[in-house]
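ok trying again, last paste got cut off:
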Amino acid sequence: MEDRRYIEIPGVSTHELPPLLVHGDQEGTPIEDVVGMAAEIVESEDMVQDFSAAEGLTEQRKYDLAVHLAEQYRGLISHWQWGDSILEWIRQCEITFETHDALRNLLHSEVWPHAGRSSFVTLLVDKAVPTHGVGLEKAVGLRLTFRQPPPIDCFSNQFLFYLNSPVAGTAYQTWAHLSADLPALLPPDRFHFQVLEMGLS
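nice, full thing came through this time. structure:
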């Protein structure tokens, strides 16, 4: 069973944190273009067996696979955008903590992003923030892995189909457990914040 140790915060009042502004892909690459780029991956990596007797079947399978790759990529980008928004929110929360006497000494002032900041991710989970299917740990892990959202042609089909979840999960778990001590969690009943989704489709 997970050892959940919450920080003791003086008083009984609820503290208001900055809103979590989740930035969506407001402009982004049109889906047709993403499918086109995915089709190039399908073609270059010989992912579909050539059915010479049924040319239409081969082309349909290639198209279906390209659509599936494009969906995987768009899911990855959605996770990255959530992760980027969460790390920015954590920065804003740090500023808020610095301005409140009751909160000022709760965060270590070490190199950012300190592993203890994973407490803010746990707070989002504890508050049951609606994410529309985005896994918060995976989202932060992808943002920790990629400083910018990489274009689809940077990825192999293997990464998009199988590897992005383990890579993101490993990145998050490594970051979250860098601290020698178990992270002290933020009690969800003592904090309030809004989640504002900006430009999400």
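cool. The CA atoms of residues 16 and 192 lie 5 Å apart. The radius of gyration is 21 Å.
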